[in-house]
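Journal club side-thread
Mid-discussion, someone asked how the predicted structure for our own chain would compare to the paper's figures. Pasting it here so we can look after the session.
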Amino acid sequence: MDICHLTECTVCKQVCSTVLAESLVSELQEADLQELSRSEAVRRQYEVETERLTSRLEHTRAQNAVLALTLDESKTHCDRLSLLVGKYESSAIALR
């Protein structure tokens, strides 16, 4: 009877430890899934922020290109005005 009792105890301990192990694994898997879903949300937020910043960067580059063109156009216009002022000065001096 003693051997049967020990065997039953051993089996009972193994069953309890198996149930405990399965419970712990299940909790771990749930925690991993929750962490994964949180990290997915964080990753998505980073993606959205990256897209937003990329869009702003492209917009700023486009604005810089427009400003550069406007500056070149203004410089050309100033050069023409400078030549015209030179002509008028020359004409004014010749009339004196």
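Post-session note: The longest helix spans residues 2-95.
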